Amino acid sequence: MTKEATLEPELSHPMEELLRMDRIPHIWCPTCGLGTVVTAFASAIQKLEIGLDDIAVVSGIGCTGRVAGYVKIDSFHTTHGRAIPFATGLHLANPKLKTVVISGDGDLISIGGNHFIHAARRNIDLTVICVNNFIYAMTGGQVAPTTPLTANASTMPYGNFEQPFSIPYLADSCGAVYVARWSALHVRRLVTAIAEAIAKPGFSVVEVISPCSTLYSRRNRLGTGLDLMRFYHDNCEIKHGADTRELEIKFQEKITVGKFIDRDRPTFVQSMNNWYGKVFGDEYEPYEGAVE
Amino acid sequence: MMENLGLGIMMEVPTVIINVQRGGPSTGLPTLPAQADIMQARWGSHGDYELIAVAPSSPQESFDYMIMAFNLSEKYRVPTLVMMDECVGHMTEKIVIPEPEEIEITPRKLYDGPKDEYLPYRPDEDMVPWMVRAGDGYRFHTTGLTHDERGYPAMNAECQHELVTRLMDKIRTKADEIAVLEEDEVDGADVVVISYGISSRVAIPAVERARAEGVKVGSLRMVTVWPFPENRMRELAKEVGALVVVELNMGQMYYEVERVAAGNAKTILVPHAGGWVHDSEDIYQAIKGGAR
């Protein structure tokens, strides 16, 4: 029987080329924002027309840490908080490879916080997509460095009293060259932001506010994932170029989203080549990677 | 460090780590010697594993064995530790650096076969899988999770058994091949002094003094400290009266020696808490005490 003769439509996922279909279904909960983030990332690759052999993904540990396992490109699932150092090594060995870190707020900003600030300071040519669900989700809803004040977490049963980090403010003050924040609802803007961040030489950061209905929402009685999406719809305020000092996320208050920073600064490799070129003159051969 | 040592073992990443040991625990004795990290090197990361460690005792050996460490880590795809100590780390001696073409380099096994047939963790006959590089077009995945031959997570006891057994056997079954031991006057010896790193140099005057007095004393110096050379040590314990272990700790490698000696030879520890090297007199007395 030929294909034309069947009445069944041929079913295939439009992103099949970019996904490890042999690993689907994924482990994420219904209404989690991570599926949207993966789709946005895949769409950004398609938009940029990057060859699938020319880009790699590095993840840490946690719900978002699992992203590396589902994208059909060179992908590395590393240890908790250490996605950025792993990615730094990968990038320095082969700077021609676009290296993207996709990991969560707990992974990147808490245990990995030191790597985050120094990679930004050194302007390592990486793109960091930080999926922020305000909580450690995979391990049971513990307080994270991004949990808003007064929000409930399993280790803050009476509400959080620790001042959280504002990821765009942190990234900006440490020298990131591109900083944006969107929510899982802003799919097309998110695709644009990820594409811009990947295309931008230097340390670029895209924060994605993402619903966690299983832990964050349940503990805080915020309803289903759909309710959270509705909340983003009603409360996200787009303000490009906003002062990053004013981007604090307060519990169930408005969330400022947009592209905040887009500036030029020599990357780590450019700075090294420029400096050694000055010091050693023609004797210095600019570094372009260790892989022929 | 230890968590990522485990990642290197699990992902089978050729890595060389240098540990210049100081006295501990904690900040202990900065810039003063010890050899008390020998068991940490072997067991510091969680889980069951085998790795390779070498212990140079001079600047020349630090150069030579560093190359050996890289070659071993590439050949077996396993993190290899260079266990120096403060004495060796700060030592100044003449060294001879050979011409680059005289240096033997064992590169990793790079796969260049058909892309659709590549399985990143399919073991070869030597139990070591073939490597590819990110960007070479194989679009592979690797993880610190227990994984199957595709590199995909496989959360079950069967896969864990198969993987951990292979990771250990690829080193364990090659222990005799990996072992580099320097033996001196061991044949017909009554007592054999076992040491590694700086302690092997410190032991020399005591051995010579005992020999001058007619004691049949040999020495075995472990250049590779892990994997433990079980077969040779077991054999030796059957041939001699006593094994004297000299190490700058309160007894670590000693217990390995005692285990394989299994009562066939007397085992004597010459301990030292670190901060300085052994007093030759202590080693001499131990040799005398072991002599029949």
Compact overview of the structure:
The complex is a heterodimer of chains A (292) and B (292). Chain A has 292 residues and is of the alpha/beta class.
Q: What this model shows, in words?
A:
The complex is a heterodimer of chains A (292) and B (292). Chain A has 292 residues and is α/β, with parallel strands linked by helices. Chain A has one domain: 3-Layer(aba) Sandwich (Rossmann fold), CATH 3.40.50.970. Chain A contains nine helices and ten strands. In chain A, helix 1 packs across helix 6, helix 3 crosses helix 4 and helix 4 crosses helix 5. The longest helix of chain A has 15 residues. Chain A is globular, with a radius of gyration of 20 Å. Chain B has a domain of 111 residues: Rossmann fold (3-Layer(aba) Sandwich). Chain B has 292 residues and is α/β, with parallel strands linked by helices. Chain B is elongated. In chain B, the strands form two sheets. Chain B has a five-stranded mixed beta sheet. Chain B has a five-stranded mixed beta sheet with strand order 6-8-7-10-11, sandwiched between helices. Chain B is 35% helix and 19% strand. The relative contact order of chain B is 0.15. Chain B contains eleven helices and eleven strands. Chains A and B meet through strand 2 of A and helix 1 and strand 5 of B.
